[in-house]
Prior knowledge:
90 residues, 5-stranded mixed beta sheet, globular, two-stranded antiparallel ribbon, single chain, alpha+beta, Ubiquitin-like (UB roll)
Amino acid sequence: MTIEVRIPTILRTYTDGKKAVDGEGATLAALIDNLEGNHPGLRERLLEGEDLRRFVNVYINDEDVRFIGGLEAELSDGDQVVVLPAVAGG
């Protein structure tokens, strides 16, 4: 099962500059574990303890994971996961 993960510019230092990487996992948590194995340090930037960091938004096929199960949100082959850091400004 291959999942495309879109990586924001600020986290591309963990993916050798790649805008997108492939990962595997039946849930978002499993996908993040898989990504950590191939891109060390990425998990720490996405998670705080056992939850997503407050200022990191993750979408599965344009659906905010916070509304579809969080880290237990289910993934299917061909899904696209987008990681977006929240941006503040004024």
